[in-house]
Amino acid sequence: MNGNHNLRNGILWGLGFVLMIAALYMVFAYVPTEKHGGIVQRIFYFHVPVAWVSFLAFFVTFIYSILYLWKRETKWDAVACASAEVGVIFTTLVLITGPIWAKPAWGIWWTWDARLTTSLVLWLIYVAYLLVRGLTGEPSRAARYGAVIGIVGFIDVPIVFLTVNLWRTQHPTTIIFEGGLTSPMLATLMVCIVAFTVLYIVLIIQSAGLKNLEAEIRRLRIMKAE
Amino acid sequence: MKAFSKIFVIFWKDMLTEVRTREIIISVLVFALLVLVIFSFAFGTGAEVTELAAPGILWVALTFGGVIGLNRTFAVEKENSRLEGLMLCPVDRAVIYWGKLAGSFTFMLAVAVVVTPIFLALFNLPVFLPRLALVIVLALIGFAAVGTLFSALAVNTRARDIMLPILFLPVVVPVIVSAVKATAPVLAGSPWGEMSTWLQIMAAFDIIYLVAATLVFEFVIEE
User: Fold this and answer.
1) Rounded to an integer, what distance in angstroms lies between the CA atom of residue A118 and that of residue A123?
2) Which of B149, B181, B222 sits opposite A167 (nearest CB)?
3) Separation in Å, CA A1 to CA A8, A79, A82
C-alpha cells in the first residue's frame, strides 16, 4: 500500500462518514413525515439505497468476472468476489427492511411481486456463488468457478424479473408514492443513495485489498515451500 | 470430422454407457414417480386440486428428477479419470458441452416421456396432449443448458451432491414458472393464446443460456 492509496482511502472514509451522518440527520430530523405512509415510511430512505447498492454490487461482480476470465489477473477476481459478498449482505438487508415496511404499509410481510421475488432469487444465486467459492479448494479454480457463476447468474436477472412480472403483478411503487416525491424527500433519498454507494466503495476497497494480501501470502508460502 | 459428428460421438458414448450400466434413467424415473405419488398424497387428487396444483406437481417431479439426472452426468465422468480422457480428445471444449448436453437432454426426455402419461392418468386428465410435449421439450432444453454447465462445475467442489441443486434451481426459476404457467392451459384445454407468452420466454431463455454456457464452458473444465 503506497501513500496515494492511503490518501484515497482516508478521503473515502471521511466522505462516507460525513455522508452517513448527513443521511441520518435528513432521514430522522429534516424530511417531513409522509402523509399516507406515516413514520414507518422513513425506512424507505434505507431500503431503496440498499437495494440500489445490491444491484450495483452484482453488476460489478458481472463486469469483473468477465475481466478476470479475459485477463486472468487475481486482482479482478478479488473485486468480483468482494462485490458479491457485499451484494449478498445488502440483499439480505433489502429482504429484512422490505417486510418490516410491508407489514404496516400493506398489511402483509411478503408478496410475490416482481421486485421482491427477483431480489430473493438474486440472493439465492449469489449465496450459491459464495458457497461454491468456499467449497472449491484450489484458489484459481474457485476464482474461475466464481467468474462463471457471476456471469451466468447476472444474465438471469432481467429474465427472472420479466417472468415474475408476468406471473404476479402487484406493483408496489404506486402504493408507496401516492402523492409523488416532494423535493425534501427526493433530496434525502439522493443523499442516502450517495452515502450508501460510498459505503459500498469503501467496503469493496477494503475487502478486495484483503483478498489481494491473502493471495500474496499464499504466493509467498508456495515460494518458501519450494 | 465436422463439429456435429464430434458432438454425436460424445453423445453416443453416454448413450452406450447408459444402455450398459442403466445407472441414470431408471433411478431418476423411479424418483420422479415417487415425487408424483408423494404430492398426490399431500394434496389429494380431486378436480379442484387438479386445476390448482397439477401443473406444479408435474414440474416439481420433472425438475427434481432432472437435477438428480444432471448430477450423475458429470459424476460418472469423475470415476476412473474419464473426464481427463474426455478433455484429451482433440475437440473444442464447446463440443464436449454440446455432447454432454445432448445426453442430459435425452435422459430427461426419456424420463418425462414415461412420467407425464402416468401423471396425466393419476389425475384423470386426457393422456394424449401433444401441446404438452412442446412445453416439456422447451423446458428441458433450458434445464439441460444450465444443468450441464453447473454439473461440470459442481463435481469439482466439496459437497458436490448438494451443490448442483443449490446452483441450478434459482437460475432456472424463469423456466419453472413458465413451464407451470404453460402447462395449466394445456391441461384445461384452453387455446394457444394463453400459453404463447410462456413458450416465448422459455425459447428466449434456452437460446440465451445455450449461447452463454457454450462461451463459458471452457473455463469450467480447463486444467
Assistant:
1) 8
2) B181
3) 11, 16, 18
DSSP state of A38: B
Return the C-alpha cell found at A14: 471521511
Phi and psi of B158, rounded to 5°?
-70, 160
Closest CA to B138 of B95, B217, B199: B199
- CB-closest option in B170, B208, B222 to A155: B208
- Length of chain A as a residue count: 226
Distance CA A54, CA A46 (A): 12
From the list B148, B168, B163, B194, the residue with the least C-alpha distance to B55 is B194
| Among candidates A132, A151, A153 on the partner chain, residue whose Cβ is nearest the Cβ of B157 | A132
A2 Cβ contact list (under 8 Å, min separation 6): none
Q: Please report where in the chains the cell 405419488 appears, as a residue.
A: B37
CB contact residues (below 8 A), chain B span 118-177, against chain A: 146, 149, 153-154, 156-159, 163, 166-167, 169-171, 173-174, 177
**What is the three-class DSSP state of A35?**
coil
Residues of A in contact with B213 (CB under 8 A): 152
Q: Output the pTM of the full model.
A: 0.90
Taking only Cα atoms into account, the Rg of chain B, rounded to an integer number of angstroms, comes to 18
Q: Per-residue DSSP letters for B14-81?
A: HHHHHHHH--SHHHHHHHHHHHHHHHHHHH---HHHHHHHHHHHHHHHHHHHHHHHHHHHHHHHHGGG
**For the segment B101-135, what is each residue's pLDDT rounded down to a tens digit?**
999 999 999 999 999 999 988 888 888 888 999 99
Q: Are B180 and B99 in contact (CB under 8 A)?
A: no
Cβ-based contacts under 8 A for chains A and B: 82
ipTM metric: 0.89
pLDDT of A125-144, one tens digit each? Answer: 999 999 999 998 888 889 99
